[in-house]
């Protein structure tokens, strides 16, 4: 049997710890022991049931940070997996197991990239940091956002951040995410007057009253998007009303909806426009809003340049910038002023049965991370 690379060895070791959110299952201590050996100063930052750490090597700026999560989503029915999800196996060039792509492979690549980089450049410029949480796949209340609050409170800033989320499509680095859309959800209640369908003059049907307003919301163009973002999208995800009887007009209708929005609008502007439409239709309504993330964008700058240049040099192809996909912890880091990009392995199997990643991709990813560090933290 051929010897595995240090990146694959570490990735296997991490996958074999069943760290379903918010469990960490010892993954972070494994990373910490490797980082301490390189001279990193470690701060363990547990909040409630969530395990987090901040590690930093160097006292000066600029600060380059790798961000990621040790938690994984549940495996689903284990008998459907070709191999047990928490017993990593390498087969036909793929590393298989829960978290292989999202994102224990990236965590391993962070560590081995830093190990090689520090061996070559023990006196690098600035600082290298890692921000690791066990709560990215969960409620994201006590994870990255709390660590960022902690750093902000003492004015410790991140200049550049690579989030190891699986950004790639066909080959590693073909796509990097330089931003994400915002996500704003609402639960709308429209009230009417309940009564017997046979006495329409005694009722006010909230479904009838809401329908034209919903049609207008669905047809509204919220913005045109821009160079980096598709147009803002509004989607109704649920409508519920009724008492269960066909002869009763219900007293209210509940509607759930979500905006995925670009940097051309703000959450407040969207709220105002929704309220205006509801009022124009004369509805009696209220809404509970949940803003799960503002959009962020790192349009250009030294981090995007370094990532692009490294992909060209190490892998020999051009990368594409994209802001598609769901939200990520980048949304908590970018508002501090950091440049943030997501660069990780291919995402075809994330959260699925038989999650897997090409072994070659993890070694390439580690080489990329090392090359990016050299571009940013070594004086030419
Ligand atoms: Zn992830």
Automatic annotation (TrEMBL):
Pathway noted in the entry: Amino-acid biosynthesis; L-lysine biosynthesis via DAP pathway; LL-2,6-diaminopimelate from (S)-tetrahydrodipicolinate (succinylase route): step 3/3
Cofactor field = Zn(2+); Co(2+)
In this chain the Peptidase M20 dimerisation domain maps to 178-285
Can you tell me which residues bind Zn(2+) 2?
A: 102, 137, 351
Q: Does the keyword Plastid apply?
A: no
Instruction: Name one matching Pfam family.
Output: M20_dimer
Reactions catalysed, as given in the entry: N-succinyl-(2S,6S)-2,6-diaminopimelate + H2O = (2S,6S)-2,6-diaminopimelate + succinate
Q: Where does Zn(2+) 1 bind?
A: 69, 102, 165
* Cofactor binding mode and count: Binds 2 Zn(2+) or Co(2+) ions per subunit.
Q: Which InterPro entries does the record cross-reference, listed alphabetically? A: ArgE/DapE_CS, DapE_proteobac, Peptidase_M20, Peptidase_M20_dimer, Peptidase_M20A
Active site: residue positions: 71, 136 (proton acceptor)
This entry's Enzyme Commission designation comes to 3.5.1.18
Q: What class of enzyme is it?
A: hydrolase
Keyword Ribonucleoprotein in record: no
Q: Which UniProt keywords apply?
A: Amino-acid biosynthesis, Cobalt, Diaminopimelate biosynthesis, Hydrolase, Lysine biosynthesis, Metal-binding, Zinc
- GO molecular function terms attached to this record: succinyl-diaminopimelate desuccinylase activity
Role summary = Catalyzes the hydrolysis of N-succinyl-L,L-diaminopimelic acid (SDAP), forming succinate and LL-2,6-diaminopimelate (DAP), an intermediate involved in the bacterial biosynthesis of lysine and meso-diaminopimelic acid, an essential component of bacterial cell walls.
Q: Which family does it belong to?
A: Belongs to the peptidase M20A family. DapE subfamily.
Q: How is the subunit organization of this protein annotated in UniProt? A: Homodimer.
The UniProt entry, under NCBIfam families, shows: dapE_proteo (TIGR01246), PRK13009.1 (NF009557)
Q: What is this protein called?
A: Succinyl-diaminopimelate desuccinylase
Gene that codes for this?
dapE
């Amino acid at each position: 049997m051929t010897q595995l690379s240090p990146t694959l060895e570490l990735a296997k070791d991490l996958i074999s710890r069943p760290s379903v959110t918010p469990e960490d299952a010892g993954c972070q201590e494994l990373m910490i022991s490797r980082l301490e050996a390189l001279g990193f100063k470690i701060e363990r930052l547990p909040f409630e049931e969530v395990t987090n750490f901040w590690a930093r090597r160097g006292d000066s700026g600029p600060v380059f940070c790798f961000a990621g999560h040790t938690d994984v989503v549940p495996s689903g029915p284990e008998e459907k997996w070709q191999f047990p999800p928490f017993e990593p196996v390498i087969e036909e060039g793929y590393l298989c197991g829960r978290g292989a792509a999202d994102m224990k492979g990236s965590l391993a690549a962070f560590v081995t990239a830093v190990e090689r980089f520090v061996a070559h450049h023990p006196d690098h410029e600035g600082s290298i940091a890692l921000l690791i949480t066990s709560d990215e796949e969960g409620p994201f209340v006590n994870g990255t956002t709390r660590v960022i609050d902690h750093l902000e409170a003492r004015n410790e800033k991140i200049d550049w951040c690579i989030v190891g989320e699986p950004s790639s499509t066909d080959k590693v680095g073909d796509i990097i995410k330089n931003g994400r859309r915002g996500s704003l959800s609402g639960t709308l209640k429209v009230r009417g007057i309940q009564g017997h369908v046979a006495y329409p003059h005694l009722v006010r049907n909230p479904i009838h009253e809401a329908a034209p307003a919903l049609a207008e919301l669905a047809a509204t163009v919220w913005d045109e998007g821009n160079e980096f973002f598709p147009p803002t999208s509004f989607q109704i995800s649920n409508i519920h009303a009724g008492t269960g009887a066909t002869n009763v007009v219900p007293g209210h209708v509940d509607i759930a909806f979500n905006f995925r929005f670009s940097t051309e609008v703000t959450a407040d502007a969207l709220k105002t426009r929704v309220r205006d439409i509801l009022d124009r239709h004369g509805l009696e309504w209220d809404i509970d809003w949940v803003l799960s993330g503002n959009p962020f964008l790192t349009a250009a700058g030294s981090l995007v340049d370094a990532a692009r240049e490294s992909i060209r040099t190490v892998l020999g192809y051009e990368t594409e910038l994209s802001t598609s996909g769901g939200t990520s912890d980048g949304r908590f880091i970018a508002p501090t002023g950091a440049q943030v990009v997501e660069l990780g392995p291919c995402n075809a199997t994330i959260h699925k049965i038989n999650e897997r990643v090409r072994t070659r991709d993890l070694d390439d990813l580690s080489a990329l991370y090392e090359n990016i560090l050299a571009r940013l933290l070594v004086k030419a």
